[in-house]
């Protein structure tokens, strides 16, 4: 009887301890196979790009920044464009999701007539990158044809807004016209985009992701009338403008 009582008390004490166990883990990312840009294959462009990615606790992408360039803007853009199409699980602390950052390396390598892309987390980061079934159609066009030359009457901001919206591949249905998402763009001196983040959410996840993807596809920002590109731009986009 005493042995049974001791076992019962032991089990009773273990239950609260087990209930208090909390899960802690880093970001996990499931991505479709990346595209090796056709023009990059033709010109035999190779290199490794390191991206720093801000992952929000709601599993959305907050920002993407090129920490180390491959040396070729097309390859950098191909890596950046992939991230919003990945399935992301945010980091957990005590089983609660929280905003965090992670770094990923993409190695673009040509082997004969074949192209190879390796994607992996930076050593020491507590996250993992997996390649699984495509979440989007990898054969879909990366961008529509180049838009016509902008009207001279457009302001510089309007020209950039027009260019970003021309890279929205599929029409967005069922989104209220009064929504607006602000996107922050970091640019190099030559106009190449080296960072994109959602500066202010529209409150609609679909529109926010659409704006982020379209901005990445732009690749570079045009020069202003003085022949310069601001290092940081904030552009507001609405579905019906």
Would you write up a description of this structure?
The chain has about 240 residues and is of the alpha+beta class. It is built from 5 helices and 12 strands. It folds into 2 domains: about 25-135, TonB (TolA/TonB C-terminal domain), CATH 3.30.2420; about 150-240, Fusion Protein Consisting Of Minor Coat Protein, Glycine Rich Linker, Tola, And A His Tag, Chain: A, Domain 2 (2-Layer Sandwich), CATH 3.30.1150. About 25% of the residues lie in helices and about 30% in strands. A 7-stranded antiparallel β-sheet has the order 8-7-2-3-11-10-12, covered by helices on one side. A hairpin with a 5-residue loop joins strand 10 (about 180-185) and strand 11. Residues about 1-15 and about 125-150 have low confidence and may be disordered.
Chain-wise SSE layout:
Blueprint: H1 2-19, E1 28-31, H2 38-42, E2 47-55, E3 61-68, H3 73-82, E4 87-89, E5 91-93, E6 96-98, E7 100-111, E8 114-121, E9 128-131, H4 156-165, E10 181-187, E11 193-200, H5 205-218, E12 232-237
Parallel strand pairs: 1-9
Antiparallel strand pairs: 1-4, 2-3, 2-7, 3-11, 5-6, 7-8, 10-11, 10-12
Question: What can be said about this structure in brief?
Answer:
This protein has 241 residues and is an alpha+beta fold. The protein has helices spanning 2-19, 38-42, 73-82, 156-165, 205-218, and strands at 28-31, 47-55, 61-68, 87-89, 91-93, 96-98, 100-111, 114-121, 128-131, 181-187, 193-200, 232-237. A hairpin with a 5-residue loop joins strand 2 (47-55) and strand 3 (61-68).
